[in-house]
Write a structure and sequence with these properties.
Elements (H helix, E strand, L loop, with lengths): L1 H23 L9 E2 L12 E7 L4 H17 L3 E7 L7 H12 L3 H13 L8 H10 L4 H8 L2 H16 L7 E4 L3 E3 L1 H4 L9 H24 L2
Parallel strand pairs: 2-3
Antiparallel strand pairs: 1-5, 2-4, 4-5
Helix pairs in contact: 1-9, 2-9, 3-7
């Protein structure tokens, strides 16, 4: 048992040392993040806009969610944070509308993580409207009210807008984070400069470090305008 904990401690120390070493070097464009060829307009005023492109279907988005939520809270009033549910095919559109229905009903804080858990822990697909409605009813949501919201013009418009943003930012994988309409990174991008075959927790930490850098960079650039 002592040997097990000794080995575990060695692994943890090595992981922390690796992250610290990577964090000591300034993130580089083309390695840790990318600059968009065509900058996108934002409506965040003097604050830095942060968009998370995600999908409920994505296990990596599920893994990223707790760390990302903590990161957003730590940013406080420095940023305007928005989630953008994407769809790589028409079968994913119901999950886009699910997210925007939660937003419209003021239930995101309460149920966002529960949707992830239902899909990735309880193995409920939640890909079709009937399954989504049944799940929401089990969460204590009024069936008719949810269906009206889910199928509303407003929610469908937001889902179409999400697809437009997906195209504008050329999103080909999730989770991906866009900073102030100009910079993009992700766990896979941010960990590209690390030795290969890193564990997912290390990749997530690497992404958050790059996001810190990019938010500070964007804020400094805004201050000069």
């Amino acid at each position: 048992m002592r040997l097990f904990f000794s080995v575990l401690a060695t692994i943890c120390f090595a992981a922390v040392s690796l992250i610290a070493a990577a964090a000591s070097a300034a993130p580089q464009n083309g390695v840790d993040y990318r600059i968009l060829n065509t900058p996108q307009n934002t409506d965040s005023g003097k604050k830095v806009e942060v968009l998370e492109f995600f999908g409920y279907f994505c296990p990596h988005c599920n893994a990223f969610e707790p760390s990302l939520s903590d990161w957003v809270k730590k940013q406080g009033n420095n940023i305007v944070f928005k989630r953008v549910p994407i769809a790589f095919g028409s079968e994913m559109i119901p999950q886009q509308r699910l997210y925007y229905a939660l937003e419209a009903m003021g239930k995101t804080e309460e149920l966002h993580k529960k949707v992830f858990s239902a899909i990735h822990v309880e193995r409920k697909p939640l890909m079709k409207e009937d399954a989504i409605v049944d799940f929401m009813v089990k969460q204590g949501i009024d069936k008719q009210k949810f269906m009206d919201t889910f199928n509303s013009f407003g929610v469908q418009t937001l889902a179409r807008r999400a697809s437009q943003l997906q195209e504008a930012y050329k999103i080909d994988g999730v989770p991906t984070v866009a900073i102030d309409g100009r910079y993009m990174t992700s766990p896979s991008i941010a960990s590209a400069g690390l030795p290969p075959n890193q564990s997912e927790p290390i990749m997530l930490v690497a992404a958050l470090k790059v996001m810190d850098f990019l938010v500070a960079k964007a804020a400094a650039e805004k201050a000069k305008k």
